[in-house]
Design goal:
Blueprint lengths: L1 H7 L10 H28 L11 H15 L2 H15 L13 E9 L7 H4 L5 H12 L3 E8 L8 E6 L7 H19 L3 E7 L3 E8 L4 E4 L2 E3 L1 H9 L9 H12 L6 E6 L7 H12 L3 E7 L5 H6 L2 E5 L4 H12 L9
Parallel strand pairs: 3-4, 3-8, 8-9, 9-10
Antiparallel strand pairs: 1-2, 4-5, 5-6, 6-7
Helix pairs in contact: 2-3, 2-4, 2-6, 4-7, 4-12, 7-12, 9-10
């Protein structure tokens, strides 16, 4: 009878686990959750352009939760955002030193400008964990940097990045273009500049606007969160043909009467440009607009020659090439000497 009662009252397998086993299971679950968060920690820093400076706003916390959820199941986006972080950290992504003359060191200060970091901060690149922490301090303007005294160069205006999304871009070229777009937005935000990314094929696909001063974002004219705009932008796939007129017309509309704008044009193809567009582009250049083209494939293009101030003919878009072009676009203009 006692045996029957013992058999009927036998605990279920999970109930028979010892306290030590339960603690081990809980520890394993905590570790798994920690690893998942650590896997996207550096990625969330890439996308921390909006929100309060202390990163504690309710909206930003919601954005980060959504980000972690999306990235856990999307290895491609995670890879592209990591790539964007690498591009942004390259020395060539800094403004050109030669155009920054007239400054003298005046001590140190806290900054978000990688180009002014002291040597001890650069040492953090040697350790992955320290590097992630460094990027976090960067987004909070807490890097130790050189304080400079002297004449401030004239600031640049907005930057417009036109990205070819035609079918021939699909694959590595499109992935690098996505990462480059993301890196550019974050670096221009450091400079408090307005960035617009226009995706195009035979027509305008999507237009993303990032206000670096107020840290707000829009997609196709509608307000969206900063993180959602960047995530959507890097998720784009390439397809269709190529036409230059629609995207250049849109880029010029965005630039409008703004002075010292930068237009970065990325394509792997060739297409014609109408005389009316060329005339409008010339007017924009008179206002200080610079047109830089990344021509993937390295071939000759008559249209590209007509629209561009600088052409980079490359066979493969690398992080170093993209960072260098962004660095040039960030370079300010030295003030004219007093007469």
């Amino acid at each position: 009878e006692d045996g029957e009662a013992e058999g009927q009252g036998s605990p279920a397998p999970e109930e028979s686990m010892s306290k030590e086993q339960i603690d081990n299971m809980r520890s394993a679950l905590r570790s798994a959750m920690t690893r998942a968060v650590e896997d996207v920690k550096d990625l969330t820093e890439v996308l921390s352009g909006a929100g309060d400076e202390d990163g504690s706003s309710e909206r930003e916390m919601v954005d980060r939760s959504k980000l972690i959820k999306k990235l856990k199941n999307n290895a491609r986006i995670a890879k592209l955002l990591k790539m964007a972080g690498r591009i942004a950290s390259m020395p060539s992504a800094k403004p050109a030193v030669s155009k920054d003359q007239g400054f003298t060191p005046a001590g140190v200060e806290l900054t978000g400008d990688l180009s002014r970091m002291v040597g001890s901060e650069f040492a953090n690149f040697a350790d992955e964990n320290l590097e992630i922490a460094m990027f976090q301090r960067m987004t909070q303007n807490r890097l130790v940097g050189i304080k400079r005294k002297g004449k401030t160069p004239m600031g640049r205006g907005p930057v417009v990045f036109c990205v070819d999304e035609s079918g021939s871009m699909e694959g590595d070229r499109n992935d690098m273009a996505r990462a480059l777009s993301c890196a550019m937005v974050n670096l221009m935000t450091e400079d408090k500049r307005h960035s617009t990314v226009i995706g195009y094929s035979q027509r305008i696909e999507d237009v993303y606007e990032f206000n670096g001063k107020y840290k707000t974002a829009r997609k196709n004219g509608g307000s969206v969160s900063w993180n959602d705009a960047l995530l959507d932008m890097v998720s784009v796939r390439a397809s269709g043909g190529t036409s230059f007129d629609p995207v250049l017309r849109k880029a010029l509309d965005v630039i409008g009467k703004e002075k010292r704008a930068d237009l970065i044009f990325l394509t792997d193809g060739d297409a014609s440009v109408s005389r009316s567009i060329l005339n409008k582009l010339e007017q924009a250049k008179k206002q200080g607009c610079r047109v830089t083209t990344i021509l993937i494939g390295g071939g000759y293009s008559h249209a590209i020659e007509e629209i561009s101030d600088t052409v980079h003919r490359i066979y493969d878009l690398t992080a170093e090439t993209g960072a260098s072009i962004i660095g040039d676009a960030r370079t300010k203009v030295a003030p004219a000497p007093a007469k």
